[in-house]
Structure formats: structure tokens, C-alpha cells
Amino acid sequence: MLAVQSVTELRLAMRNGEQVLLTLLIPIVLLVGLSTLDLVPLPQPRIAAVLPGVLALAVMSSAFTGQAIALGFDRRYGVVRRLAATALPRWLLVAGRLVAVLGVVAIQVVLLCGLAAALGWRPAASGVGWALLLLVLGTAAFGSLGILLGGSVRAEITLAVANLVWFVLLLAGGIIVPLGLLPGPLAAVGAALPSGALAEGLRAALSAGHAPSATQVLVLLLWTAAASLLAVRTVKLR
């Protein structure tokens, strides 16, 4: 049942034009643009500095923004309520969405890393495993937040808030601009956000082959736990 529900959710996500734009085209454009054009001051090679942030953006786009908007409008049109009336248990509906998000993230990672390799990126081999772990933790954190937002407020509000958060974190959450290049107070806030923890951890893993810091892992786990607990209490079927 989980496999069937997850595949169905994945197919629906990939058929949605806005979803594909958000999860695939925007990260690809940013990867190519920031690595080939001197728009933001970054260390050389630029592709090695750009890819970790773009991977973090891809996770945020799929697991948070896309997930929240899709769930919000599924609730509005009664899709979730009808599914809840079937033999599928509620936990499986949530699990199916999260597994589908992991599938989308896997597609993004393969495409973005393949494109980066074509642009000259060579990862630190010792950090690949750590990067995969961070991607899973980041997907869990952003996915929980997406379900919390999309399952708690009206679809129109979800659409506005999800896009606003995406834009703010893109510019000031440590994704495109590393935390070290941000002003001190802003960098401190970014380090406590899942975007900053994920992006900085990926930079350390893929560029230097280092393990993520305990703080970065803890930040992602805390956001996952807090959002999950709140979602259990506040998510509505309509």
C-alpha cells in the first residue's frame, strides 16, 4: 500500500508543471548561472561552491514549498478527505507523501550532480556519504514543515507563505550566499534554520570531505521533531 501510494504521489508531482519548474528548472538555472557568471562573490572553483547551496534549494523546493502547496490545495478540493475515507490509514497518507518527496529529491540530486560534473565539479569522495545523510535529514525537516503548513492553514495562505519563506531563505538563509559572507546577526539566525544547517553541512561534506558538525545535525533533527509534533496536533483533513 505504501509503495502504491508513494508512486502515485510521485507521478502526480512530476505531472504538475509548477512543481517541475520549482523543483527542477529553477535549481538548474541557478546552478548554471551562478557557476558560470560572476554574480555573487564565491571561492574558486565556483561550481564546488554553488552546488551544495543549489542542492539545499532543491530539497527545500520539493519537501517544503511544493509539499505545502500541494497538500493545501488537496485539502481545499477534498482530495485528502476522500483518501482518508478509504482503507488507507492516515499515517500511510503522510508517509506516502514523504517517500514521494524523497523520490523527487533523488531525481534532483542525480540531475544536478550530473550537470555539475559536466561543468567540472569533482566532489570529495570521503564526504559523499555524509552528503547523502544530510539530504535525507534535510528532506525530513523541510517535509515535516511543509506538511505542517499545508495541513494547517487555507490553501491561499499556504501559497503565499510558502513562496515568501522560499524567497527569504534563498537570499538570507545560507543557501545561495554562504553564512560566512552574511552579516553576523543574519549568519547566526541562518545557522539555526534548516536551510543554513543543510547548506553549510553540504558545503563541508562535498567540498572538503568533512562530516557535518553536531550542531548542524541537531538543528535538522530538532526542526523535524518540532514540526512533526505540531503537525500531528494541527493538521486538518479539510
UniProtKB/TrEMBL annotation:
InterPro entries given in the database record: ABC2_TM, ABC_2_transport, Nod_factor_ABC_transporter
Topology with respect to the bilayer: Multi-pass membrane protein
Transmembrane segments: 20-37, 49-73, 94-121, 127-149, 161-193, 213-232
Keyword set, alphabetical order: Antibiotic resistance, Membrane, Transmembrane, Transmembrane helix
Localization annotation: Membrane
Stretches assigned to the ABC-2 type transporter transmembrane domain: 9-205
Keyword Membrane: yes
Stretches of the chain forming a coiled coil according to its record: none
UniProt-recorded name of the protein: ABC transporter permease
Species, as recorded: Pseudonocardia yunnanensis
Phylogenetic lineage: Bacteria, Bacillati, Actinomycetota, Actinomycetes, Pseudonocardiales
